[in-house]
Design goal:
The protein is built from eleven helices and 14 strands. It is of the alpha/beta class. The protein has one domain: 3-Layer(aba) Sandwich (UDP-N-acetylmuramoyl-L-alanine:D-glutamate ligase). A hairpin with a 4-residue loop joins strand 13 and strand 14. The radius of gyration is 18 Å and the shape is globular.
């Protein structure tokens, strides 16, 4: 059974093959598996972890592709169901020479947005040690929010470590005010919070990493660790146990695609915590996978195998050699 699970919306991404051409004009696309939480599941499975993924897709070609590709990735799919009453979400992504690509989402009233509490109530938590949750799923619909909230409650009752990535998607929310309020309320129910520096400014009103960390540590007795992602600079970490440190990022020769880097960061942190690494080394692994991810196109295609990760760490770390 899986030691790691996540709940989210799977997507198909149609990524432009034409560089620096607007989405209005692109005619040539490649199809990839996507969705923030599914990206994390793919990365965890690629490192050899037992992973379960919970969601719902349509009984359509995109849904069939997602189920097949997820299973091929080594992820348990018994809780990835199909529903003929709804369609599978997808999005278009621009290919760019530098900076963040333009995107266009087609996911309103998707199958995942209609995943109900009853459909996830029977999901087994018996062997789960870590659960990854994201603010995206809670933003999809009122139904998804209710499902998310109830499932988070089940995880906490079972004393499973919950890790929350805000993953802000303003276009999914009716207002910025509601996005901030609901996201911060959701964060109260997680043990570890992973805000990006830009997200932290929106959610707390500050760009100071320690101020962001203190906001989440102080708003909930449950939250014991905050890792603020600083992009290429690295990450700032603070805990209720008075640990406070910054882990530097890794230099990369060329940034190909920034989408999926934050999910790769989560893969690094969560996989290392499953292996009982120290928090500092876990964040270092997180920074490493984030750096590896931006050097490939596709939302999760660049995530490394265990051997590739060890090779990258040994090549780019001065603190000694890592092993499988």
């Amino acid at each position: 059974m899986a030691e790691f699970l996540t709940l989210g919306e799977p997507l198909v991404v149609l990524a432009s093959k034409e560089k620096d051409v607007s989405l209005d004009e692109v005619v040539d696309f490649e199809k990839f598996l996507a969705g923030a939480e599914l990206n994390v599941a793919v990365g965890m499975a690629r490192l050899g972890n037992q992973v379960a993924y919970i969601s719902k897709v349509g009984s359509d070609p995109f849904g069939n592709f997602i189920v097949s590709a997820t299973e091929k990735a080594g992820i348990e799919v018994q809780n990835l169901t199909q529903d003929a009453d709804y369609l599978t979400g997808f999005y278009l992504k621009q290919r760019v020479s530098q900076g963040d690509p333009a995107t266009a989402y087609f996911r309103k009233n998707s199958a995942a947005a209609n995943l109900t509490c009853q459909e996830v109530e029977s999901v087994s938590l018996d062997d789960v040690k870590i659960a990854h949750l994201s603010g995206i799923f809670a933003a999809l619909s009122e139904t998804a929010f209710e499902t998310y909230t109830r499932f988070n409650e089940r995880l906490n009752t079972a004393k499973i470590m919950t890790i929350f990535d805000p993953n802000l998607r303003p276009s999914l929310w009716r207002s910025r005010e509601k996005m901030v309020r609901v996201t911060n309320e959701s964060a109260k129910n997680a043990h570890i919070i992973l805000p990006g520096i830009d997200e932290g400014e929106i959610l707390t009103g500050s760009r100071e990493p320690e101020v962001i960390a203190d906001f989440y540590l102080n708003q909930s007795e449950l939250t014991h660790t905050v890792v603020v992602k600083l992009g290429a600079v690295g990450a700032f970490v603070k805990t209720k146990g008075h640990q406070k440190f910054t882990v530097p990022g890794f230099k990369v020769e060329k940034v190909v695609d920034t989408v999926g880097a934050g999910d790769g960061f989560a893969v690094g942190l969560e996989s290392a915590l499953l292996e009982d690494w120290s928090l500092e080394d876990a964040v270092r692994r997180a920074c490493a996978i984030g750096a590896i991810a931006v050097q490939s196109s596709g939302d999760n295609d660049g995530y490394p195998t265990r051997e590739e990760l060890v090779e990258f760490l040994n090549k780019n770390t001065e603190r000694g050699k890592f092993s499988c």
